[in-house]
Write a structure and sequence with these properties.
Elements lengths: L1 H21 L6 H21 L10 H25 L3 H10 L9 H9 L4 H27 L7 H9 L2 H12 L6 H11 L2 H12 L6 H29 L3 H11 L5 H9 L4 H26 L1
Helix pairs in contact: 1-10, 2-8, 2-9, 2-10, 2-13, 3-4, 3-6, 3-11, 3-12, 4-6, 4-13, 4-14, 6-7, 6-12, 10-13, 10-14, 11-12, 11-14, 13-14
């Protein structure tokens, strides 16, 4: 499973890069692919996964940890943005791709590979109640604040949330969890959702260039440092302070060190928030995270 997912990542990123270099597609294709992921593929994934979730009291910590890390990492990005005088677009992009991690597609197979099947419930809670809900709420607020939109108000943010397709899918998934979803319908959700990762990785490849503008290199380096090093370090400190032990603590810290969420990068690119920086955070972050996560696994043993 791990090798297959890593190969899929490499191939899809390469396809996007090749399509861009060969000019076989127009400049607007990446935007269309991002829109498909956000409004079709991601909601299908939610409708497939959420109704099958089972919640227990012991999984409270991995549900709360992503929110604690989000608050600290977002604050760090804002401080760096003020000190480095980053543009509004760069700040908005990093506020999306630094706090939000790739805790499902990359996280699930890596957790299974390093920690076994027993670690998956912790990873699923971390992703579904942490990363995904944060994407559907915090992510929308960031878009309202930093994209070319009117200044955010509570009413406007709530309006965007109820019009945000993945959030509506989350609500629908919670309702469907109370009934038995027909197998045929669930299979449809599963098949559509399976297109999410290949499509968005191709979109990332379409916008991923090694020759970043000079103004993007420092934000990229600092963003990757926060995402791959500072956040898992903070998570490790929290599990020690709070006295969390065992597999729950190990998998939670491991998930905290994941690369940037692909969908968060898609939102940033779709909203024209430093799209090349967002694509670079995902494109460079995924291969680098394979090294850093291996080191984290050794440390957590």
């Amino acid at each position: 499973m791990l090798v297959e997912n890593l190969l899929l990542i490499a191939i899809c990123l390469a396809i996007g890069v090749i399509l861009r270099i060969s000019r076989r597609v127009g400049d607007d294709v990446a935007h269309a692919l991002n829109a498909y992921v956000i409004h079709v593929a991601l909601p299908a994934v939610v409708l497939h996964q959420v109704p099958a979730m089972q919640f227990t009291a012991q999984l409270l910590f991995p549900a709360l940890l992503p929110w604690l890390l989000l608050a600290v990492s977002a604050g760090a990005v804002l401080l760096l943005a003020r000190y480095c005088q980053w543009s509004k677009a760069i700040t908005g992009a990093l506020l999306l791709v630094v706090p939000l991690g790739n805790t499902s597609f990359l996280g699930f197979p890596l957790v299974q590979s390093f920690w076994g099947e027993a670690g998956l419930p912790v990873a699923i809670i971390y992703d579904q109640l942490g990363s995904f809900v944060a994407l559907s709420t915090y992510g929308i607020w960031i878009l309202s604040r930093y994209a070319d939109c009117p200044p955010p108000t509570v009413k406007r943010v709530l309006e965007r949330m109820v019009h945000f397709t993945p959030f509506l899918a989350l609500l629908a998934g919670l309702l469907l969890s109370q009934i038995t979803v027909p197998v045929v319908l669930d299979d449809v959700f599963k098949r559509i959702g399976a297109t999410l990762v290949p499509v968005i990785l191709v979109a990332v490849g379409l916008q991923w260039k090694l020759d970043l503008h000079a103004e993007l290199r420092a934000p990229l380096a600092l963003g990757l440092s926060l995402k791959l090093l500072a956040m898992p370090l903070l998570a490790l400190a929290l599990v020690q302070v709070l006295g969390v032990h065992g597999l729950t603590a190990q998998v939670s810290v491991f998930e905290a060190g994941m690369a940037s969420m692909i969908t968060a990068g898609a939102l940033a690119m779709n909203a024209n928030l430093a799209p090349r920086l967002a694509a670079a955070m995902v494109g460079f972050g995924i291969p680098l995270s394979l090294l850093t996560l291996t080191l984290w696994h050794s440390l957590l043993q």
